[in-house]
Amino acid sequence: MAESLVEYEEGSGEEMEFDAVAIRCDFSEYESLQEWAKDYFGTDRDGRGWKYRLNVSDDADEDEIETTIRGYVTDRGQLIEFDGGIIVSSF
What we know:
alpha+beta; 3-stranded antiparallel β-sheet; 3 strands; 51% helix
């Protein structure tokens, strides 16, 4: 997360003021893209979950699933991937 913020500062030329509370409110950490999808979409009242909401077929392989979730997140917010998990901005 820190590396991402430093890269943002360097790329934008804007110095950021560190605000731990704002960062905690704006970003969440997950073990995987699928864990994020399960948390974000949950299950609707018909019992359909994140795969249905993202239009992922039951026979999709892991790469297809991750590509779909990654695209959804990056189209709407910020995704930081690292060994052991991901960090996703709120949107």
